[in-house]
Amino acid sequence: MIEENKFLNFSVFTIPVLNDNYIFVAKAHKTSQTWVIDPALAKPVINFLQDKKYKLTAVVNTHHHLDHTGGNLELKNYYNALILAPKNDPITADKKLDTNSKLSFAGEAVQIIEAPGHTLGHILYYFTESKVLFAGDCLFSLGCGRLFEGSPQQMTNSLNKILQLPDNTQVFCAHEYSLDNSKFALSVDSANLALQKKTTQIQNLRNQNKFSIPFKLGIEKQCNPFLRSNAPEIKKYLNLSSSCSTVESFAKLRKLKDNF
Ligand SMILES: [Zn+2]
After folding, report:
1. 98 C-alpha vs ligand 1 centroid, how far in Å?
2. Interstrand relation of 170-173 and 132-136 (parallel, antiparallel or unpaired)
3. How many angstroms is it from 176 CA to the middle of ligand 1?
């Protein structure tokens, strides 16, 4: 089952693959411009594009992990598409991107946000007019990516960049982890009413086999413990003084989640 979300200038189609991965296809409304974001596999993307009679113009990656890049070369060869990938992650690409790169999709500027932590080169794609963020494995609904390569300081900076985006930003993350994440989030922030409400919504969606993404960033700012490391109630739960740094609080929270 593939879900479509329509925005101002383009649609995003979400293709579920493997255990809990999502591949996204963005298709411009007025032109044939078509991107695939983080293709773990090529086949499900080719099947979808053939069905819709779309032609892929670019393969776009947030980071180098195989469950985000496994379909890259097959898709590139099949469609003669360009691969766009982060400058500081080891990916074979036609164009390497960093914060200074100028990109556009469906007539709107796409901002590259460097967000190291999960990997050192991890980037986010922010579609500035529609306010759509492709967050890869940096931010999840009620969670964040594991620190495989980066430090708590780096990840805190990356999450701070996301916190500065508008509340009505719609976030597409690359895994369906929301329900599991809600269990940890509730364990550290049990009195949070916004979190309780969001958890009920996720449960309802998952009970109907619907995706819990995209999700609204404004609500996430109120619910996601990793975006709230600086909140007094989170620090209290972690037995940290209210004056400790956000980085220290985030590091302890992330470690707790790794062993949850
Ligand atoms: Zn990853």
Report:
1. 18
2. parallel
3. 13
Residues of the chain with pLDDT under 50: none
DSSP-derived secondary structure for 67-111: HHHTTHHHHHHHHTPEEEEETTS----SEEE-TT--EEETTEEEE
Q: How far is the C-alpha of 188 from the C-alpha of 186, rounded, in Å?
A: 5
- Domains along the chain with CATH numbers: 3-177+209-223 (3.60.15.10)
- CA 259 / ligand 1 centre spacing (Å): 18
pLDDT digits (tens, 9 = 90+) for 87-120: 999 999 999 999 999 999 999 999 999 999 999 9
Report how far residue 59's alpha carbon sits from residue 57's, in angstroms, rounded to the nearest whole number.
Answer: 7
Q: What is the pLDDT of residue 115?
A: 98
Q: Give distance in angstroms: CA of 193 to centre of ligand 1.
A: 30
Cα-to-centroid distance, 170 and ligand 1 (Å): 20
Compute the distance from residue 207 Cα to the ligand 1 centre, in Å.
26
| Euclidean distance between CA atoms 148 and 118, whole angstroms | 5
Distance (Å, whole) CA 100 – CA 113: 9
Q: Tell me if 111 sits within 8 A of 126, measured CB to CB.
A: yes
β 21-28/10-17 pair status: antiparallel
Q: How far is the CA of 30 from the centre of ligand 1 (A)?
A: 32
Three-state DSSP at 127 gives strand
Alpha-carbon Rg for the chain, nearest whole angstrom, is 18
- Reading the block at residue 237, the tokens are 């739960």
User: What is the pLDDT, as a whole number, of residue 234?
Assistant: 96
